[in-house]
Every structure is written in C-alpha cells, then in structure tokens.
C-alpha cells in the first residue's frame, strides 16, 4: 500500500481536529504536502481534495469583494480555483527549495499563508485586466512539459486580439506620458478623477499655478487622442453619457462645442460649476464630445493602472505588511488617494477575514455588547478630539475617534474616517487580530469595510457615511461584536 493512502486519511482527521479544537500541529498533512511538492501525483491529488474547500471559500470571498469595475463575479469561481492551484504548482516548480521550506515542520501556518497569498495575487491580477482580456496560464513558465503532477494542462489558445490591444495601448500611453508633470496628470486626473487644484496642492513644486496644470492636461489629452496609432476598444461604443431627461435640448445639432478637452474632462469627473455644466448639457455637440472623451478615459484606465499603480504582487505585499521603510510609505501614500487600489485592499482584507478553520471553530466564543448612540456624542470632527473608550470587554478595550473628511451629499455627511486602537488590560497593545469588519446597520446593501490592525494595535477605516454601524473584531479564538455605534451628526 502506498504511503500516501494512510497519510491522506490521517491528514483528514487532523483537519477535523483543527476545525474542532484549533490544533495547529498537522504532521500527516505536512508530510503529505512534502510529497506533493516532490511531484508525487497521488499526494497532490489528496491535498487538493482535502484543501479544496478552504481554497474555494477564499476565492469566493475574493470574487464577492472584487471591485465592480473589474467585471468579476461568482461565475468565474471554477476558473479562479483552477488558476490558484496552477499558480501554486508553478511556484513549487520555480522555487522548489522555498516550497519545501514552508512545510519543513508540522505547523501549516506558513503553507496556509502561501496559498492565501496565491489566491490574492491571482484575483488581483484578474481585477486589473481589461474586460474581455484572456491570458493563458499554460504558457512556458520554466517547467517544460511538466505542468503539474496530474499532467493536466490548459489547451493552448490563439493570440487574443485583446492582448494585442493591451500592448498597443500601453505603448501609446507610454509614448506620450513621459515627464513627471504628465505622470501626475495621468495618475491624479485621468485615473483618479481629481480636480486640477488637487494636483497643484499635491505637487506645488512641479506646477507653478493652476493654469499650468490645465495646460498640461489639455496638451496631453490632445497628443494621445490625436495619435494616428490610437486604438479603441470595442467597449467604447457601449459607453453613453446620460443627460437629465427633463433638460431642454436645442435643435441646432451643427453648432460646435465651445469647450476644450480639458474642461470636458473636468465635467466628466464632476468638477465644473453649475453654469458650465448647464452649457455643456444644452449643447448636443458638447454632450457627444464629452461622451467620446469619457469612453476614451474608461478604456485607458486599466492601462494607466499598469503604469502608475503598484504592481499586483507589490500591493499584496503591502497589504500583508511585508513592505518596510520607504517602499511601504510610497505604496501607502498612493493607496490613500487611489480609489482603485483602496478597493482592492478592501478585497484582500476580506480574504484575510475568512477564518483559518474550514468550519466555525467550537473554541471561538461570541461576545455581544449593546451600545447607545449617545456613546459617540458629540462626534469629534476635522481632526479634533482624542481617543476615548467606547466599551471594554472582558479581554479587549476599544478606543476610537472620528474625523470628517468631506462635505454633504444628498443631505448626508459623507467621508468620515474612523481611527481605532485595541488594547488589553494594562495598556498592552492588541496585534493578533484577523480582521476588523464594519457594517452599516441602516443600509443592508452597503458594502462592508474590512481592515486589520498594525503593529501598534491601531486601525483606520475611511469613506464612511454618517450613520449607525456594527463593528466585528475577529481574533483566532473570539468574535467580538459591537452594536449601535453611531458616527456623524443626527439626520
């Protein structure tokens, strides 16, 4: 009888004990993974069967929290799971020593971390591809014909016209976006939709005044859009700009739009005054020009992200706190202002928030505390106020303060930021936290905000509407739920 058979049975028992009691020592599972990493096909099939539910759950959570713009959905789950196993095997082939190192002892924590990182990297990679883009995982990756212990390989695919478009568009943008000023315009206005004044405030040494910002923006737009090599995605034709249905539209369809590309882009980004917005929306020529410009910007954004956003693996390393020093600060500064990267960080944090156990652990205890809205009144705003305790559990004390970072929208205070800090009795910092999840109680359709603590036990949650929230603190052994936690002014 093969040694794999008894190891497989024993590994299943160990995973059950881990689910029930949290036992971290898994000698049979570790031995089974060592055989799998040594290219034993039976061992690989066994670990896939045992750990597939664990991988599937993390892939499912990642897809559920993927930014909407990515176009990913639950229908992609089977392909993503297959890709994760393929990428894991590719890592084993390309880094045999490192792969065996993660299973050198009986604690599977490092292996679990490797698989989780593989899930994050793959889903993040898919998030950043233009819709309709297909990449082929069966391409040469240094392992020749040995594509896995099962011998299964994805069938070769013909060259995709979308992949050609990817290369052409990246080359086009790199051709015209070269100086530091142009990179700032591309990142902050084209990609992130900021105001010209925001660019000047962030880069006062690059631009002398707001006129130079606007001139650089307009010149760059005209150069890119006027290039004869410019390619448009087929999706562009499907992007339409919607006018107010009650707006009065003049009949003169041949009148030229009096506004240049720079003004139209500010209009598309929502940064023009009422007078200019009304004038644009009353002109069919301006509406058509704005729609065409909006379509171009939407097509460029995935390619701009490749140029100005941290690479996917670097963003994962940032989220997992594997970056240090200047590298961490550079990525952190970008993430704080980039809505796309920030949304991806939320997705990665959601993957971490899934409990390590395949099933809910019997040792996890649930504490529920009911808070009155008055515990957060008055709310400190604009950076005023200091940390104060909102409640103390038998184990953990939670201190918070809030700051208002934006104005009103639709009668509601928006863009609140919550700063929190966890500590034990005796002021010892709490750093072993799987996730902190914040839910809007009054809006069931609102997305969850998920984060974790830093090395000081502190955390930050941004972009909150004023309202009533519930906070969940997940540790390895407990789930602490805080209810009726109000942020912002009454409305």
Question: Your description of this structure?
Answer:
The chain has helices at about 5-20, 25-35, 40-65, 75-95, 95-100, 110-125, 160-175, 180-190, 195-200, 210-225, 260-270, 275-280, 285-310, 310-320, 325-335, 340-355; strands at about 365-370, 390, 395-405, 410, 410-415, 415-425, 435-440, 450, 460-465, 465-475, 480-485. The chain is of the alpha+beta class and about 500 residues long. It folds into three domains: about 5-125, no CATH class; about 165-310, no CATH class; about 365-485, Immunoglobulin-like (Sandwich). Strands 1-11-10-7-8 form a five-stranded mixed sheet. Strands 2-3-6-9 form a four-stranded antiparallel sheet, with no helix packed on it. Helix 3 crosses helix 16 (about 340-355) and helix 4 packs across helix 6. The termini are far apart.
Question: What is the structure about, briefly put?
Answer:
By secondary structure, the chain is an alpha+beta fold.
Distance between the termini: 71 Å
Briefly note the structural class of the backbone: alpha+beta
Rg on CA atoms, Å: 26 Å
Strand order of the largest sheet: 1-11-10-7-8
What does the main sheet amount to?
Answer: 5 strands, mixed
CA-based shape: globular
Which H/E pattern describes the elements? Answer: HHHHHHHHHHHHHHHHEEEEEEEEEEE
Query: What share of residues is helical?
Result: 40-55%
Average pLDDT taken over every residue: 76
Compute the number of structural domains.
3
Per DSSP, the total helix count is: 16
Unreliable residue stretches: 136-145, 151-162, 231-251, 357-386, 409-413
Overall number of strands: 11
